[in-house]
Model the fold of this input.
Amino acid sequence: MEIILKTKTSMDERILAIADPVASDLGFSIVRIRVMGGKRSTVQIMAERLSDGAMSVANCAELSRELSSTFEVEDPIDEGYVLEVSSPGLDRPLTEIGHFERYKGLLARLELDRLVEGRKRFRGILVGVDGDNIAMDLDKEDETALIPFEWIVEAKLMITDELIKAGQQTKIKEQETKDTTEKE
Done:
């Protein structure tokens, strides 16, 4: 059973239903959508490339242009709004079960929809996925915990030296790929 952590409200879900096929056609995956109110609503869309999980400024601009055109036709929000398309960033949200496998070995924070041993928030190193459970070495615990994915309401990576190093290695690989492509 796939529980989606990409949205929180019915408006977010409506926008995801419109944005997801557009992003997919361009080779991107929607990580999270939030519609935030204020004087003028903001539609915040985090996305990443399907191929490698990265997202450049050019990728954000490309997706933004396509979504703007689609939203003009579909008109998902009654009033005016600002569209923000961005990468998930270093302290990215984990919104699909596969994210917990992809980022194993890194520190994450989870919030559950229920109390477990008297608390809802947990922090620890991701060990991976075991069926429909997230395996995590929790702070100050000796055994690996198995947390049902369906209990998670919010999850994100925590910024650490290891995460920054992994981010830098990804940027180096992206630049090497770009350099190789330009030479061909």
